[in-house]
Amino acid sequence: MSSKSDSMPKTNSVPTMTLGKTPAGKAKMQTKANKKMVRMATVAVYVLAVSLAAIVLAVYYSLIWRPNLATNVPTETTPDSTTVATTTPAAP
């Protein structure tokens, strides 16, 4: 007994890629390559921007920002109800 598939000639079941062999196919491949490059460039710019912001904040908080600076805190009141501000010393 022969099945229907046995009577058919055997062919390659994997379709051949002819996309790059025609001018339209080459243009389509070029468009895909351009889209991929734009996507990669966008991701690279994003990563660099976020990293730069993180570096700027790290430098600011490690070198410039001082949390214990002297501040003006009202501590005394004069008899005429005006407040005199005194400065508290900065912690060493």
UniProtKB/TrEMBL annotation:
Keywords: Membrane, Transmembrane, Transmembrane helix. The chain crosses the membrane at residues 38-63. The keyword Transmembrane applies. Signal peptide: none annotated. Residues 1-16 have a biased composition (Polar residues). Residues 1-30, 71-92 are annotated as: Disordered. This is InaF motif containing 2.
